[in-house]
């Protein structure tokens, strides 16, 4: 094991800020749907709108950071060891099998994580954001015949936005669970707070794999 500085300052700021905004948007969204009562409907709508603007700004910053630092390459999907990774999460880790991939500062995501996170960035997030923008500015778009030309009823936009929000929250729940699959229950969370994580090198991984195969 060796301690590696794997998560940079902006990366940690972006991660925790995004998480906080998503949870706050979900909270205010539930109140807008009359599922809970905390702020009152009008305040919930205002808070939801403000948080959505902050999230859009944060997403813009993160896109700029990912492309200027080259970190966008972390999300390039690969089929290499994807099947092994799925087997590890569904069966292997409960049997004490070694992790099929080696994490490093240059390869922070395993094959399954890369696919899932890419889906989050290309499907779930745009689904929520675009439907939210259409819903928020529906009257303005309608006046300019944008929505009319697309023939999208307001009710459909609301349903798509809500569906996207539930998919997003499902992703967050799974993501929180996956943080507990590190070397300890809190290892991954500590790494995202401090930036430092204890990682296996290739020799450690080979020795662990040989022990597992002998058993």
Q: Given the C-alpha coordinates, what overall shape results? A: elongated
- Termini distance? 22 Å
What percentage of amino acids are in beta strands? under 5%
Unreliable spans: 205-215
Number of helices: 9
For the biggest sheet, the summary is: 2 strands, antiparallel
Looking at CATH, the homologous superfamily is Transmembrane di-heme cytochromes, Chain C
Q: CATH class, anyone?
A: Mainly Alpha
Mean pLDDT, as a whole number?
86
Q: What is the second-level CATH architecture?
A: Up-down Bundle
Q: How many domains, in number, for the residues?
A: 1
CATH topology: Fumarate Reductase Cytochrome B subunit
Q: How many strand elements?
A: 2
Strand order of the largest sheet: 1-2
- Specify the helix fraction band: 55-70%
What would you say this structure looks like, in words?
Helix content is 67%, strand content 4%. The protein has a single domain (2-214), classed as Fumarate Reductase Cytochrome B subunit (Up-down Bundle). By secondary structure, it is mainly alpha-helical. It has nine helices and two strands. Helix 1 (9-32) packs antiparallel against helix 2, helix 1 (9-32) crosses helix 7 and helix 4 packs antiparallel against helix 7. Strands 1-2 form a two-stranded antiparallel ribbon. The protein starts with a strand and ends with a helix.
Task: Outline the secondary-structure elements.
Elements: E1 2-5, H1 9-32, H2 41-69, H3 82-90, H4 111-136, H5 138-143, H6 146-150, H7 154-178, H8 187-194, E2 196-199, H9 202-214
Antiparallel strand pairs: 1-2
Helix pairs in contact: 1-2, 1-7, 4-7
């Amino acid at each position: 094991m060796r301690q590696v500085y794997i998560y940079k300052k902006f990366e940690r700021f972006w991660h925790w800020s995004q998480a906080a905004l998503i949870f706050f948007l979900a909270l205010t969204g539930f109140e807008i749907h009359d599922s809970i009562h905390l702020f009152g409907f009008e305040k919930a709508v205002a808070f939801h709108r403000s948080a959505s603007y902050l999230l859009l700004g944060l997403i813009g910053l993160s896109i700029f950071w990912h492309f200027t630092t080259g970190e966008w390459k972390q999300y390039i999907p690969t089929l290499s060891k994807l099947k092994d990774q799925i087997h590890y999460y569904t069966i292997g880790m409960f049997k004490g099998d070694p992790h099929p991939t080696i994490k490093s500062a240059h390869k922070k995501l395993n094959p399954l994580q890369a696919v899932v996170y890419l889906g989050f960035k290309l499907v779930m997030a745009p689904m929520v954001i675009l439907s939210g923008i259409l819903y928020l500015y529906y009257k303005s778009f309608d006046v300019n015949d944008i929505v009319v030309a697309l023939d999208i009823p307001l009710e459909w936009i609301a349903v798509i936005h809500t569906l996207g929000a539930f998919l997003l929250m499902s992703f967050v729940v799974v993501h929180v669970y996956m943080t507990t699959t590190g070397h300890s229950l809190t290892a991954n969370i500590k790494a995202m707070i401090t930036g430092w994580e204890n990682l296996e090198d290739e020799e450690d991984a080979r020795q662990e794999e040989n022990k597992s195969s002998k058993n």
